[in-house]
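[step 3/7] fold_predict: job queued, chain A
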Amino acid sequence: MSDLFEKIVHTGVGLAFATKEKLEEIGEELVKVGKLTEKEARQLIDDVMKKSESAKSEIKSQIEKAVETAMTKMNLATRDEVEKLQAEITKLRQELKKKAKD
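[step 4/7] structure written:
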């Protein structure tokens, strides 16, 4: 592959969200103008899609880490902690009702 196509493959986040259909359109156009063979175009599309999936996974991971860090810094209760507190409140209410009847 030429340098131009290597640059396309390595473009990063912009292509991470490109659709397969759009990439196929680009590939077809490159074949029409004689810049790529059909085989090279298919390989280019496959390479870009693989890099796209990898970039999406990396972005998702980074966002999850950032959110987790922000939540920790905000000192918010986790879902499990809230559920435990709700269970404890329910238990205490039941005990109060029982004592009130006695």
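[step 5/7] annotate
DSSP finds five helices and no strands in the chain.
The mean pLDDT is 82.
exit 0
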